[in-house]
Fold this sequence. Notes:
By secondary structure, the protein is α/β, with parallel strands linked by helices. It folds into three domains: 1-37, no CATH class; 41-282; 289-375 and 382-550, Carbon-nitrogen hydrolase (Nitrilase/N-carbamoyl-D-aminoacid amidohydrolase, 4-Layer Sandwich). It contains 19 helices and 14 strands. The protein has helices at residues 25-32, 41-52, 56-67, 82-89, 95-113, 125-150, 176-197, 217-220, 223-226, 229-250, 258-282, 302-305, 311-325, 348-361, 461-464, 489-504, 559-563, 566-586, 588-591; strands spanning 8-13, 16-21, 289-297, 332-334, 364-373, 383-391, 397-402, 441-443, 448-454, 474-479, 508-512, 518-520, 526-529, 541-549. The strands form three sheets. It has a six-stranded mixed beta sheet with strand order 7-6-5-4-3-14. A six-stranded mixed beta sheet has the order 8-9-10-11-12-13, with helices on one face. Helix 5 (95-113) packs antiparallel against helix 6.
Amino acid sequence: xxxxxxxxxxxxxxxxxxxxxxxxxxxxxxxxxxxxxxxxxxxxxxxxxxxxxxxxxxxxxxxxxxxxxxxxxxxxxxxxxxxxxxxxxxxxxxxxxxxxxxxxxxxxxxxxxxxxxxxxxxxxxxxxxxxxxxxxxxxxxxxxxxxxxxxxxxxxxxxxxxxxxxxxxxxxxxxxxxxxxxxxxxxxxxxxxxxxxxxxxxxxxxxxxxxxxxxxxxxxxxxxxxxxxxxxxxxxxxxxxxxxxxxxxxxxxxxxxxxxxxxxxxxxxxxxxxxxxxxxxxxxxxxxxxxxxxxxxxxxxxxxxxxxxxxxxxxxxxxxxxxxxxxxxxxxxxxxxxxxxxxxxxxxxxxxxxxxxxxxxxxxxxxxxxxxxxxxxxxxxxxxxxxxxxxxxxxxxxxxxxxxxxxxxxxxxxxxxxxxxxxxxxxxxxxxxxxxxxxxxxxxxxxxxxxxxxxxxxxxxxxxxxxxxxxxxxxxxxxxxxxxxxxxxxxxxxxxxxxxxxxxxxxxxxxxxxxxxxxxxxxxxxxxxxxxxxxxxxxxxxxxxxxxxxxxxxxxxxxxxxxxxxxxxxxxxxxxxxxxxxxxxxxxxxxx
Length: 592
């Protein structure tokens, strides 16, 4: 075909080429109205250059962006975009490279979001723990990216596996229905992996993707049905839609609304969930009563907690803060985890000071203090427990709860029977014993009942729901975040804990050593947060919360509280079933 003459300008219009006479191409563009369409050429050229180069640096950058969706940066909108970037970077690669891209992105994400582990005041262990935990968690991101492109209808296109630069997006393009099914499958696969991550090797459900949206209160109401995993599903569903829209754009797919079609369905569901949550919040009944809860935040550095020489001074400071708080005549006084430096039942001065404080002020107390039970014979080891105690206004111990979910390498050493040398790489040389179940803390004179979550037990959805029975009015979390100084761990844990209130339909009161001490209502709103006189989140002091106890109504518990992770396990089944079906289809033995 001959080239167009110089006096004519060529422009593309719906797949055909038209020529227009001089004076200029711009005149022709205006005449056809094409200038009204946005020009994607600069963006497409830049993205093409990205795809032709090594994708791993860009995958790492996308992982960092995902980490920034959580506190302290807390740019929640990045959670809706970063997974799309990670998926897009793995487009048109073979599955092995897709796995590696996902691993690099996951590693950057976890190294960034878990950087507070480096603040633990011991040598060597923080770096080793940070690297090992991030390396393990990154496998889930890698499997997700691999699985997502394994599920792509029509294959991933390029089969290069030698690390050579890829051509931009040579992938098969299915119809809208198949793309929509793929997006749902990708979201289910992510949620299935989050569900498994919360349980495998003891579980570490820290920062599920949905937790990044903890300030989007109306949307949190979905958690009453699905747990936090429902929000993770919506975020990934929308993000997968962005991936499809972006790939369609870069491949110059026809139709100016092609990209909108891929995100329309998830947007509709998100808007519906938001409207439902907003309606439920506005139509909620008034609380049936208020409970005055005084909380102590002593802000004790972890180095002092480990120093026996500091025991007397730090315990005296907790008593002093409590005496100030008791001038407000609260119904309940809370101390955080590790507030008591000795074994409560076996140290007479400590026991007397605490029980006398409760008796003289006629106040209920819930405190964090270790416990010990001697073995049946002198030759058997003593069992130590990280415990919470309910002290009545008469100074008597009414109930004891023992922590069930222990921190690996912080409260127990995994595999210590077979690998005893591991204890020398941890901050501890001994180990706690796991508790066997929840114990209701019943305060008769207050007509109130609570259950206790110690330390990071408030980030485990499936554990917390077991503590909320028919008579539970609110949850209490006692935690010591002094391990992490003034890092982001405190705020990330609080963001995760918000969902335990919503999932179970009860308030949650958090009493921490150095932040974030607060209480959350059943809709996920952080109603009050402690700050010291300087407005500092991590400082020492006390405050009084007026906790609203709701009427849970005739139906009582939420669906999630009654049924647990039905949605999460359904996603496990969907993701595993889809991958298994593809594996069997392509397995020659299965076809014979």
